[in-house]
Amino acid sequence: MEILTTPYGINFNFAIQSKGTSPVHALPRRNCFTVASTCTKSQKFGKLTSAHQSVTGFSGGGSVPRNGVLENASMLLSSMDLTNSDECTELYALILQNCRKLNNLRLGFQVHAQLIVNGVEVCEFLGSRLLGVYCKVGCVEDARRVFDKMSERNVFSWTAIMDVYCGLGDYEETIKLFYLMVDEGVRPDHFVFPKVFKACSELKNFQVGKDVYDYMLSIGFEGNSCVKGSVLDMFIKCGRMDVARHFFEEIEFKDVFMWNIMVSGYASKGELKKALRCVEDMKREGVNPDQVTWNSIISGYAQSGQFEEASKYFLEMGGLEDFKPNVVSWTALIAGSVQHGYDSEALSVFRKMVLQGVKPNSITIATAVSACTNLSLLRHGREIHGYCIKVEELDSDSLVGNSLVDFYAKCRSVKVARQKFGMIKQKDLVSWNAMLAGYALRGCHEEATELFSEMNFRGIEPDIITWNGLVTGFTQYGDGKTALEFFQMMHNMGMDPNATTISGALAACGHVRNLKLGKEIHGYIVRNHIDLSTGVGSALISMYSGCDSLEVACSVFSELLTRDVVVWNSIISACAQSGRSISALDLLREMNLSNVEVDMVTMVSALPACSKLAALRQGKEIHQFIIRRGLDTGTFIWNSLIDMYGRCGSIQKSRRIFDLMPQRDLVSWNVMISVYGMHGFGMDAINLFQYFRAIGLKPNHFTFTNLLSACSHSGLIEEGWKYFKMMKTDYAMDPAMEQYACMVDLMSRAGQFDETLEFIEKMPFEPNAAVWGSLLGACRIHCNPDLAEYAARYLFELEPQSSGNYVLLANIYSAAGRWEDAAKIRCLMKERGVTKPPGCSWIEVKRKFHSFIVGDNSHPLMEQISAKAERLYFDIKEIGYVPDTNFVLQDVDESEKEFSLCGHSEKMALAFGLISTPGGTPLRIIKNLRVCGDCHSATKFISKVEKRDIIMRDNYRFHHFIDGVCSCGDYW
Q1: Alpha-carbon torsion 517, 520, 524, 525, what sign?
Q2: Which residues pair with 841 in a beta bridge?
Q3: For residues 252 and 282, is the Cβ–Cβ distance under 8 A?
Q4: d(CA 652, CA 660)
């Protein structure tokens, strides 16, 4: 690659140099400005015909050939008569003119260097030609230096330099240059005013645009159609349709260009009826709508989400004789669909477009790729990428390149994203931001840091979007620590965060439970009066709830004056995740009464509350609501419903939802296997997994965890070993801690303690609390206090405040008759400040939850409940029930032990359910602790005596009691 050095070098400043007075902030109201004179030497241009032929290689009009230009021009430059200044100026100007036509930067530099060496005075005429070369080839800094050094600057010079800045999007500089131009007394023309009005429209600066327009009128400049169109467009884009309409009505001759600006203006503002009336007025004026008119209408309806109307006009356009839908028409439909979340529909339109032979442009491709990104459709995105590779102008386009970088990064193909990033020839800030955000979303800390350093080394300043991509990306990945590191770096570099940054940082604080920093950010929000309705309020709620400060989260919610759907979703989710399920469902009802439109996130947030409470009726109501509102389009909604029905004990309904799903993802299969497992239907889980493999799907670690757990709950030892080994042999997956814990649970529950201990010793990592907890639980089943002691020692170190481990060991001691050891464990709990939650069971009857705690007689129907429990006790004893007093953990006589068993919370809830519901109604009971062996045995007999299906969920699994038999097969 040849590196060209300009005659100026590279180090210089570009401050605006005014030739007259300083720039004014309000345009002067002058009657006229003196038009700068052009170089009189240009009148002698006709004398240089032979020189013209030597430079261009031809005589006459037509295109300029490239061959021989450099050699001919160099020959002329070396043989030039420097004593004849007029001829020199004319010849230099001619050569520079052709450099501009041919984009010949090297020759332009050569001419400029010779001008400097020979001391040729750069007059207004020659300066404008030299400036034109630099502007044409995009050397902005050199162009500006040429411009600033010009002794006289005519309207052509001003037009050229403004065109460069306007084309680069530096609209503020464009307006500053216009003020300077006016200040120097140069009268703007038809080429200048459109650039200035475009700058005002892009900056949405109505006041400056109005001042420029008033100035234009004050100098008596009427303007041609292009100027008037730019004025009209400026008024519209600045949001002043009233002024635009008044200006439009005053235009005497309105061509189709003018009408289209008005139609497009109304359509872009969503005033589609006015846009259509404008089209009718256009026809009455004798102006026929063209392709641009139709595209404006189609685009307006598509952007507003009215796709039926957009399609209607699209089809009408297809029936016209003069023109058909073009790439702009198709792109409008595709972009509108993506904008409103209809990504599948967008790809369907894109497919039809390609099949009909309409070639997409860069905007079409970028939009279609965005749809693939939103749907995580890696194969479809690759197909579009393949299409772009075949079309050079698309493959090299920076907009397409940026969209592909974003697509691959978000579809878990970071390496491909980096390759595409490296292939972008002209990387802009969007390119860097897309790659950095992609690294952040995939948790690539080292790569993101290196790329960020390279970005700084190249002198590319990060903007707020850069920081937002890093902070929110790492937060979404779950790496709150790194997200907060970049947030701190942003603060150190003096960049003020916006609402998006703050929301991401608050979410990161919730992930790492950094309540102190979260409160500091909250203080920043209050001090800077940041609007909480921009997503910051919901982020505060999530942060406080994630830091176990639900009361503060509720306080923030109550103080919010504006509560949109995001805020409601946050507080409902916070309550559900914090165990306040009843509050979550109450908030859902309150949300409906507040006329806030719920969305899929609302439903996914509320369904876990139903699961926690086993509130099947309310879960069904939410399901019906989802169907009525058409919210069942997302796979994650279906997955949540499978889980909800499963955790509410309705396993048949779970399977039915699974079978009816229009499209299943891996989560769907994992959830269904998990549901079978928690209900003790291990073989059903295995059969489903075998079908899963048969159709060619690949499991992940969650699949095997759920499958092995199902084997454990059902005592399927051989099957469990088979699938544990399958991870390595068939899928090259190293078992993680979760799978090892499942195997420990499986073997120890079967009484294989020697094999279990050997297995634990050979684990490739230190056992965690789940492993030792599984072993301790099995010791309760097989009454092995010595091994229980061994497991408990590790648990007391790993989870010193977990009451369940202490209670379980004490219960094992009590069951073995080691009352003193049990008492020592209870004393140890007191010394360490560990408290045991009381056993609690609850049941839903007639839309209300009733809870029962051991020893609590406050229920208003306690007398009837106790009477029913007593009758049940005698009824089930008659058919073989024998109280298991081993589960009474006090050293008292047998009669007291039997009496104590009658007061267990699950028996009270069951008795209440039986007296409060019609015969034959299934009962669903939840207990916060593991159900005791005696209650399990009694419930089997009660299900037979009362002829009721009883579904009981404890903190470990489900038990389905039907006609005296439990689904667990007494293996729990």
Answers
A1: positive
A2: 852, 927
A3: no
A4: 12
